[in-house]
Amino acid sequence: MIDPPLLNKAVVPASALDVFPTQAPEKGMFISLGPHHPSTHGVLRVAITTEGEIVTGAQPDIGYLHRATEKLAEKRTYPQIIVLTDRLDYLAAMTNNWSYCLAVEKMLNVAIPERADYLRMIVGELQRIASHCVFIGTYGIDIGAFTPFFYSFGRERERILDLFEELCGARLTYNYVRIGGVMADAPDGWLDKVKVFVKEMYAAADEYDKLLTYNPIFTDRTQGIGIMTSEVAKAWGVTGPNLRASGERADVRIDDPYGLYPRVKFDIPIGKNGDCWERYKCRVDEVRESLKIIEQALAQIQPGETMGKVAKYFRVPPGEGYGHLEAPRGDLGFYIISDGSPSPYRFHIRAPSFINLQVLQQLLKGWKVADVIAILGSIDIVLGEVDR
Amino acid sequence: MTLPLGIFYALSALMIGFSLVVVTSRNLFRGAMCLTASMGFVAAFFALLGGDFLAASQLLIYVGGVMVLILFVVMFVQTPDLFRARQTSVRWIPALLLAGGVGALFIRAFCHIESPTELPVLQPTSTALGHLLLGDMAVPFEVISLVLLAALVGALVFGLERES
Amino acid sequence: MFEIGPLLIQAFTYARQFLTTLGATPLQAVVGIKFLQTTLTISIILAIPLFLVYAERKISAFMQARLGPMHTGPWGLLQTPADTIKLLFKEDIVPQGADRLLHLLAVILAAAPVFVCFAPVPWGTGFPLINLDTGILFVFAVSGVSTLGILAAGWGSGNKFSMLGGLRGAAQMVSYEIPRALSVVPVVLFYSSLNLQTIATAQMERWHGWMPKWFIFYPGIGQIAFIVFLIASVAETNRIPFDIPEAESELVSGYHTEYSGMKFAFFFLAEYVYVFLSSALVTTLFLGGADGAAFLPSWMWFLGKTLLIVFLFLWFRWTFPRLRVDRLMQFCWQFLLPLALVNIVLTVGWMMCKTPSQDVLPTQAAIPSSEMHGSPDDAGLTKAVEK
Asked: Tell me, what's the ipTM?
C-alpha cells in the first residue's frame, strides 16, 4: 500500500505542491479546503498555498468517493454495467447510460429504432437542463445568493424528475437507456407533459437571468475572475461548457454527431473571455438550446419500436470500442476492450470532470483566496465522475 | 455617602483595578481589553460630571475606534515569546521610589485645589460645545485637525510597501 | 387612543409613590424605578428576536417557493421557542486552545450594548425612556462597542481562520460606521439637534396640509441620506450582501464557528436586535418616527414603519449574493463615503437657500413643551437629585 504523500510525489512533477506538506511553506500560508466544506460540491480536498491574499499553488486531492467502478465492471455483464454508469455523474445519469450504450452498440453493430433514438435525445436534453439547474442553484449558493437555488433546483428540476419518474420509475439513477434502445416507451400523455414543461422552462430561464445572471453583485464576483484562455483549456484537455466559454467551438453533438442530432437545428453558446461568468452564462444559454432541441424532437417523433434486435444474453465480439457524447459536464467517453466473454476485459471511463478538475492547478494561481470558491464552482465538477 | 459619591468610588475602584491589569498582565490581548474597559470608565466619569457629548464621543472614538485598531495590531503581532517577557523592569526599586515621589507631589498639589463638592446641574452641552468649538476656539480646533492630518500622512507613509 | 406612553408615565409615577410610602427616600425610589424600567425594557427587547426569527424563516420561505416551519405549533409559531429550548440544552464547547474568559466575554460584548441603545428611541407620545440630548451620538457610540465583541470572538476561538474572520468583520464594521454617521449629519444639521425626540417630532408637520414633512421626502438630500444610511446599516449588522464575516460557504469560516449552544444563540439574538434597532433609527430619522394619521396610536405607526424597514433587511438578504471582502471595502470608502460628504454639502446648500415662507426649519416654539419632557420620570429624577 503506497503512502499517500509518496504517491503524489511519484505522479506529480517535483515543482508542484505537495498535498500533505510536512512543514509550513517558506512564505505564505497553507490552507486545506475540504473535504468537509459546503462549497466543494462533494468530497473534494484542495490544498492551497497562499501568500497574503494571492493563491500561489493549488493541488486537488481526490479519491474520497472512489468506488472502483472500472474494476467492478470487469465482473459484470454488459447490461449490468448500465447500472454502474448511472452512479458516475449522478446528476446526469441519462447521458452516462447513453454514452456507454453508444460504445457497446458500436462494437455490436446494432441498429437503433428511430423512436428510441428520439426518446434518447429528449431525455438526454432534459437531463442536460436538470444538470444545469443544479449548477445554477449551487453556484448561486457559492456566491451567496440562496434564493435561485430554490427556484432552479426545487421547482424546475423537480418537474423534470417527476417526468423521469413517470417514464422509468426512478428519480436519480434511471437505468433507462439500454443497449439497443430504451427500456420502455413513453406512457400516454408523457410527451404532452414534456411540451408543457418546455414552455414553462423558457420562462424560468428568463427568471434566472433576471435574478442572478445580470445581478451587479454576481457579475462583480464572477466577471474577469478565473480567466481560462482557449490555449490553456486545450492544453489541459478541458471539454464542455468550460471550453466553449473560452471561445472554442467544440461540441461532440456537432463535431462527431451521434443519435439523431443531425436532424435538429440548434446553436452552441460560445463565450469570449473564458471567465467564470462566461462559463455560467454558457450553461444558462445551453438550457435554452436544449429546449429548442426538445421541441424539434417532439415535433418529429413518430410511434414505433423502442428496442432494437439485441439478444438477451449476448457476447461482444473481441476488439475495442469507444463511444462518446456531449454530457452536461463535457466529453464523456467509454473505452471498452472485449475478449469475447460476457464481461469486458477492460472498461475505462473518460470522465470529463476528472480532466476538467486538473486545470485548477493552473487556474487558481494568481487569484485571490476569496475567488477560489467562485472559480471552483464555475468548473462544475461532480465527484462521482472524478473519483469513479 | 450620597449616591453620586458612591458611584464615583465604585467607578474609580473598577478603573484602577482594570488599569492595574493592563500594566501587569502577560496576556497582551487581555491587557488591551482591560484598557478598553478603562476608556469606558473615563466615559462614565465624563457622564457623571454632566458632559454628555464628551462621554458619547469618548465611547465612539476611543472605545469604538482607537481600541479596535490597537486590538487589530495586538492580534497580528501576538507571538508566544511575548508571553514569557518580563513584566516588571529590572531596575524596579528606583522606579518605585521615583513614582512614589511624583505621586506624593501630585496628591499634595490636588489637596490644595478648591473644587466644588456638589455635582453641577445636568444640562445638555452639545449646543454650547458647538458654539465654543466653532466660535471662540475655532483656531485650536483647526490646528488639532492639522495634527490629525499629519498623523494620517505619517501612517500612510509607514504603511506603504517599499519596492526594493 | 391606546397610547401606551402616558399610561406608562402614570404607572411609574404610582409605583414611585408606592415605594415612597413603603419608606424609601425619593432617591432610592427613583433608583428602584430605574431598575424596574430597565428590566422591563430588556425583557420586551428580548422578545423581539423571537418574533423576527420566525418572520425571517417564513418570509424567506415564501420568497423561495416553500412554506417554512409548519409542524411545531400552528403554522410553525412555536418553532423559535423550540429552537431556543434546544439551544439551551446544548453542550457549551470551548476549544482547548481558546481563552475561556474571552470566549464568554465576546458574547457579552457583542450582545449587551444594543439593549442600551434602545433608551433614547422615541416610540411615540410619552416616550422615549430617556430624553437624551445627544441621542443619536449616544446610539452610535454604544453600538460601536459591539465591534469589540467580534474581535474578542475571533481571538477567543483559538484558531487562525476564526481570527481572520473576526478581523475582517471588525474591519468591515469600523469602516461602515463612518458613512453611517456621516449620512445622519444632514439630518442633524437640518433639525439643529442630536435629540431623537426633537428630530422625530419636527417631522410631524405637513406640506400643503397632506404631505408629511419626513426627511426622506426632501428632494435629493433626503433620499441620498436614507439610502446611504440603509446600506451602511445593513453592512453594520453583517447581513447579506455584506456578511463575509459569518458566511459558512467561504474559505475563512467566520468568527462564530467555534460557538455552540446559548452563546451561539446570543450572537444571533444580538444580530436580530441590532437589525430592529437600525430599522427603528431609520424610522426615527427619515420616516417621521411616530408620525401618522390619528386612527392608529402613535406607537403603532412607529412599529409599523420599523417592521417595514425590517422587511427590507430580510428582503435584501434573500435576494442578493454577497460582496467580496475587498469590493465591500471599496464600496464603502470609494462610493458611500464621498456620497455622504456630498450630501452634507448639498444639505447645507439647501438650508442656506431656504425661503422664510417655506418654513423649512422648525423653530423651538413649534414643538409643544409637553413633547420635550415626555419621558416617564424626567421630573422625578431632577427633583430627587436636587434634594
From this structure: 0.85
Give chain B positions within 8 Å (CB) of C147: 64, 68
Peptide bond into B116 cis (omega under 30): no
Residues 6+ apart with CB under 8 A from A374: A142, A143, A221, A222, A225, A226, A276
In contact, C169 and C252? CB cutoff 8 Å? no
Q: Are B52 and B44 in contact (CB under 8 A)?
A: no
pLDDT digits (tens, 9 = 90+) for B69-128: 999 888 877 666 666 666 677 788 898 899 999 999 999 988 888 777 777 777 788 888
Which of helix, strand or coil describes residue A219?
A: helix
Q: How far apart are CA C386 and CA B121, in angstroms?
A: 8
- Going by their DSSP bridges, the two strands A181-182 and A177-178 should be labelled as antiparallel
Q: Would you say A330 and A345 are in contact if contact means Cβ atoms under 8 Å apart? A: no
- Alpha-carbon distance of C215 to C224, in angstroms, equals 10
DSSP A183: S
Q: Given an 8 Å threshold on Cβ–Cβ distance, is B29 in contact with C102?
A: yes
Q: What is the CA radius of gyration of chain C?
A: 22
pLDDT tops 60 at residue C281? yes
Nearest residue on chain C to B4, alpha-carbon basis: C385
Q: What is the DSSP letter of C327?
A: H
Greatest C-alpha distance within chain C = 69
pLDDT in the model for residue B9: 92
Interface residue C319 vs chain A (CB under 8 A): yes
- Taking CB atoms within 8 Å and a gap of at least 24, the contacts of A13-21 are A16/A57, A16/A59, A16/A361, A17/A47, A17/A49, A17/A57, A17/A58, A17/A59, A18/A47, A18/A59, A19/A45, A19/A47, A19/A59, A19/A61, A20/A47, A21/A47
Give one DSSP letter per residue of A257-307, joined into a string. Answer: --TTGGGS-------SS--HHHHHHHHHHHHHHHHHHHHHHHHH-----SB
**Separation in Å, CA A53 to CA A308, A344, B79, C208:** 59, 50, 21, 57
The long-range contacts involving C244-248, CB below 8 angstroms and separated by at least 24 positions, are C244/A370, C244/C168, C244/C169, C244/C172, C244/C322, C244/C323, C244/C324, C244/C325, C244/C328, C245/C150, C245/C165, C245/C166, C245/C168, C245/C169, C245/C172, C246/C165, C246/C169, C247/A144, C247/C322, C248/A38
What part of A 130-149 touches C (C-beta under 8 Å)?
Answer: 140-147, 149
Distance CA A135, CA A156 (A): 13
Which amino acid is it at B160?
L
Contact B64 C151 (CB under 8 A): no
Q: Which chains reach chain A with 3 or more Cβ–Cβ distances below 8 angstroms?
A: C
Contacts across the B-C interface (CB distance below 8 Å): 80
